[in-house]
Amino acid sequence: MHLLLRLILCLTLFTAPAIATAQPSQQLEVAGAVRQQLRLDAAALAAFPAAEIGQFTQSRSGQGTETRSSVRGVKVSALVARAGLAAPGRNDWKTLVVVATATDGYRALFSWPEISNTAVGEGVLVLFERDGKALDEREGRIALISAADHRLGARHVRNLMRIEVRALD
Q: What's the pTM value of the predicted model, to 2 decimals?
């Protein structure tokens, strides 16, 4: 019996971070291999120039129903450009990755060439609006989505708090 209780306690301690409740994101930090770290709230994101803002219609289907919503957000490539990419060597940009982190620790990963040099990158957006309104508390005030992914959920980061550019070793 004591062994079972210890096992349950250990499992609870090790899985608690994985099932942590996300705090609503209020601000986004852009950091890592950039010249200037940025801290932006939803209003600052919405103030980006129109050319740096993307939008698309998202369809969700399940249990015989389909819902559509329109989302708007700043392209991750525009955020990194604003912060200034710190890749001094000619080919250094090819070995950079972008890690998007939520307040609950959930992460999604992109390569910098994928974001900056493919059609996929045009749809990697830091969202601030859905159907003309600010994002709700469940999604966080700031979120990230990759519109070109066949399955949107894997790289949909609710409550986005940080985008970090990292160099691979």
A: 0.80
